[in-house]
Amino acid sequence: MNRIYLIGFMGCGKSAVGRRLSFLLKMPYYDMDKEIVRQMGMTIPEIFERFGEEYFRNLETEFLQNLQQDHCIISTGGGVTMRKVNQRLMRQTGLVLFLDAPFKEIWRRIHKDPNRPIVRRSTREEIESLHKSRYRDYKRTAHITIRTEHRTLRQITQYAA
Ligand code: S3P
């Protein structure tokens, strides 16, 4: 299939890059989190609170398994590579781009965001260690890694396109 998946930690710029890529390449755009929120009629913190994280992870996998659209851009949630089944599915159905941003920048962008339940319930040290522990899975899943430091949105999308 002809999809482009954007993966990476929270706050690395997947949505911004995805939207721009979609515009440049004239391909439909899906934001996984937004699709889940729409489908459930609840915010992500509400889903976590009411049904728990595992349930949210199941929704992510279901989204990937059920998506019919072939030619499209998908920005994923930062935890999507936690499951091997998701890693495999993405690699088999498209090109996977990892947006690799430095933790300092990530933290600056996410630490006040009330819409990210994992950030809300954790300390900076915990988030930094989560970032470290997920890094290998991002690298392993991606076909291409794009380092975002010192690059503008335009440079990142041009590189990806
Ligand atoms: C999560 C990242 C979020 C969202 C949820 C869980 C994670 O997506 O899916 O809050 O586990 O890293 P973004 O990466 O778009 O913030």
UniProtKB/TrEMBL annotation:
A biological-process GO annotation: chorismate biosynthetic process
Cofactor, how bound (note): Binds 1 Mg(2+) ion per subunit.
Species name: Planococcus rifietoensis
Subcellular location: Cytoplasm
Record EC number: 2.7.1.71
Identification of the protein by name: Shikimate kinase
A single GO molecular function term of this UniProt record: ATP binding
Chain residues that bind ATP: G11, C12, G13, K14, S15, A16, R116, R151
Superkingdom per UniProt: Bacteria
Pathway: Metabolic intermediate biosynthesis; chorismate biosynthesis; chorismate from D-erythrose 4-phosphate and phosphoenolpyruvate: step 5/7
Quaternary assembly: Monomer.
Function: Catalyzes the specific phosphorylation of the 3-hydroxyl group of shikimic acid using ATP as a cosubstrate.
